[in-house]
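Hey forum,

I'm writing up a methods section and want to include a predicted complex as supplementary material. The small molecule is pyridoxal-5'-phosphate. I've pasted the protein sequence and the SMILES. Can someone with a working setup run it? I'll credit the forum in the acknowledgements.
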Amino acid sequence: MAVVSPLTRADGVLLKRDDLLHPDIPGNKWRKLKYNLTGEPIVTFGGAYSNHIRAVAAAGREFGFPTGGVIRGEPVRNEVLDFAVACGMRLMFLDRARYRAKASPEVLRLVREEFPGHRVIPEGGSNAEAVRGCMEIGPELAHLGEAVVCCPVGTGGTLAGLAAGLPPGFTAVGFSVLKGGSFLHDEVARLQTEALGHVTPNWRIETGFHFGGYARTTPELSAYIRDFETRHGLRLDHVYTAKMMYGIRALALGPTVVAVITGRV
Ligand SMILES: *Cc1c(COP(=O)(O)O)cnc(C)c1O
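Reply by user p_vandermeer:
Happy to help. C-alpha cells for the complex are below, copy them as they are.
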C-alpha cells in the first residue's frame, strides 16, 4: 500500500487526501499504525466510537494478528464495536475511573492479564512509531516549496509527526478538537521528544475551534459541513476535519495552505 495520497483543491486550500489511503484504515490511522504493525498481537485503548479501535481491528483482520480493545465505560454495543468484534477483536470494558488510570501499573496489569503476549499501544495509537509514520507526510509535499500544513489534533501524534517530517520553510498548524486543548502542546512536545529526542520549532496549536468539545457540534458547524459537501462533493467529519477546515477559513495562514484530510465519516 505504498501509494501517495492525492492533492486536491477546495476554497483555495490544498487537500492532502489521506482519507483515501486505505478503505478500513483511513487517513492518519494508517500512517500511525504502519510502524506499529509488527505481526505481534496488539491491545489498545479507546472510547466506544473510537476510529483508532476500528482501524486496529481492521488491521488485525487484514494482516492476520490477534487484537484486543480496552474500551472506556460500561459494556455497550454499537456499529464500531460490532465491526471490531466481527474483525476478531476481543473487547474489555473499563469503568471510567479505571480507564482514566489506564497508564497506572495496576490497570496495565489487569490489561496484560486479559491480553497476555499483546503489545500495548496507547489511546489514539500515539507513540514514537506513530510519529515516525506521520513524518512521511512532509516529503510528499516537498514539491510545493513552502506551505502551512494543517491537521486536526486529538491526541497529538499526527501533528507531532507531521511537523517533524516537514521540509525547511514549511510550518504546521494543529486545530484542537478538544475543549481546553492547551495541554496538547505538552503532549505533542512529549511525543516528539520520545520519537526524535527533541522538539521541532515549526508548529503551533489553534485552540479556538473546538465547537464545544470532543464530538460536539453546533448548527453553524453542521451548516458548514453541508455547504462544503454541496460545493466540493466531500463530506467532512464533524469530530475532526470539519473543525480544522472551518478554522483554516477563519484564519489567514498564508499563500499556500495544505489541509491534511485525516479521515472520513
Ligand atoms: C484519530 C483522528 C484524528 C486525531 O489524530 P491524533 O493523532 O490523535 O491527534 C484526527 N482526524 C481523524 C479523522 C481521526 O480519525
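Some notes you might quote in the supplement: The first strand starts at residue 7 and ends at 10. The two ends are 21 Å apart (CA to CA).
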